[in-house]
């Protein structure tokens, strides 16, 4: 399925903010995993009700449709808690300001334990994770994006400001960092079009940095102000707009 196929299939349930179909970086073929972010939680719920376990035309197996990042899952609770309470986390003001944009009667029924969770809740609860059959890789969410033989950023085309969006540079990631954690970190702040963790060709371990591309400047700036300087595991991240001098 292409991204257009997925959007055509799900658009009848409501306004789609953004979508993503994960593809193999070598073959260009779909990995059988997609993400859709709806404008409203109710739209996402209706899509789940109608399509979870449904077999699309041309598919040999039914698809699984569920919320992409249920805050009740231990993994996500731990992530949100870490973002809220990390001693290295800074710029609390902008996060609180961002939170006001998502206030509604529906959301106030579930008071969050911290302002970051309030800001994150709407995107998390309205995002769908869609899988078709058995994923072609170990992690059912993401697979390492292959990086050709390179040193530093040689051959990586990720401009800070291009027609495709605003590129954010994330430095000091741990060796086990993957694309999944970047999607979960930056997705709550706005539309993310691409994530990339730069890996060592021989070990497939993260080389300590990665990139996230967001479509909207204000959302990208908010993500940077909110996430720069917080601790992820035993690492304190440096988050900034990507420049030509980024990690050369």
TrEMBL record:
Gene Ontology CC terms, in alphabetical order: ribonucleoprotein complex
Leader sequence residues: none
Alphabetized UniProt keyword annotations: Repeat, RNA-binding
TM region(s), chain numbering: none
Gene3D superfamilies: 3.30.70.330
Domain RRM as annotated: residue spans: 1-70, 166-244
Protein name: RRM domain-containing protein
Species of provenance: Mycteria americana (Wood stork)
């Amino acid at each position: 399925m292409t991204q257009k196929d997925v959007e055509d299939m799900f658009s009848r349930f409501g306004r789609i903010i953004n979508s993503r179909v994960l593809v193999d970086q070598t073959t260009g073929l779909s990995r059988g995993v997609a993400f859709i972010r709806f404008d409203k939680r109710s739209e996402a719920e209706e899509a789940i009700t109608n399509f979870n376990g449904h077999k699309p035309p041309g598919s040999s197996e039914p698809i699984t449709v569920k919320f992409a990042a249920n805050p009740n899952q231990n993994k996500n609770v731990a992530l949100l808690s870490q973002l809220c309470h990390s001693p290295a986390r800074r710029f609390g003001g902008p996060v609180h300001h961002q939170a006001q944009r998502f206030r509604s009667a529906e959301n106030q029924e579930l008071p969050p334990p911290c302002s970051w969770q309030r800001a994150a809740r709407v995107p998390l609860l309205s995002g769908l994770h869609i899988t078709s059959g058995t994923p072609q890789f170990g992690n059912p969410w993401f697979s390492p994006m292959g990086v050709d033989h390179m040193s530093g950023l040689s051959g990586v085309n990720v401009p800070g400001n291009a027609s495709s969006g605003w590129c954010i540079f994330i430095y000091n990631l741990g060796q086990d960092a993957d694309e999944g954690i970047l999607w979960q970190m930056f997705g709550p702040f706005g539309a993310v079009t691409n994530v990339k963790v730069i890996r060592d060709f021989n070990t497939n371990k993260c080389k300590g940095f990665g990139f996230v591309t967001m479509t909207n400047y204000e959302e990208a700036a908010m993500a940077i102000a909110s996430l720069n300087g917080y601790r992820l595991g035993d690492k304190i991240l440096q988050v900034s707009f990507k420049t030509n001098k980024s990690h050369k």
